Amino acid sequence: MVAALVVLAQGLLYAGESSGEFVAPWDGLEQPLYGIALVIDFLGEPLGAVLLVAALTGGCWLAGRRRSAVLVLAGTGVTVGATALLKPIVGRTIHGGYLSFPSGHTAFATTLALIVAMAAADRLRLGGAAGTVLVLSVALLAGAVMGWTEVALSAHYPTDALGGFCTALAAVPPTSWAVDRFFPARR
């Protein structure tokens, strides 16, 4: 709920804006960081994302974690769909017309991290605080890495990355609940 409110507040604050960020995108990232950033960025591009989703879905399916496989597809679909819907509504641009809020790359990376961490917490039988700490820590790490990448490559403002992170946090839990409801565990 808090994540959804952050996305809403940021969307209202930055609606139609194309500059004025308190921290402008960085320019001149040097090797080896530039190369690392490009590799990470590729994982959020259409081809990289399809490969990641296919590998993760297939791995879950082969491991007998059918609901996790469905959640990979549904979770990424809902999150990517949400960012695609929000971008033209908010209308925030970077570099003369590219819609930037929220960051789809950051939302995608955070979504996959949330799903993997939720499956790991379930597999390790971590409940309550321990499971929550694991899930949120992994999501924060993935969101921070992809967010850094997008800002470092001058593709997004830092607040776009925060918006993408929060979009995933707002989208994945209800999607997970729906998957669990419509695909109950076998007894």
TrEMBL record:
InterPro entries according to UniProt: PAP2/HPO, PAP2/HPO_sf
Stored SUPFAM superfamilies: Acid phosphatase/Vanadium-dependent haloperoxidase (SSF48317)
TM segment ranges: 36-62, 69-90, 102-121, 128-149, 161-179
Domain (Phosphatidic acid phosphatase type 2/haloperoxidase): residue spans on this chain: 69-176
Stored SMART domains: acidPPc
UniProtKB keywords: Membrane, Transmembrane, Transmembrane helix
Protein name: Phosphatase PAP2 family protein
Organism of origin: Amycolatopsis alkalitolerans
The organism's taxonomic lineage, starting at the top: Bacteria, Bacillati, Actinomycetota, Actinomycetes, Pseudonocardiales
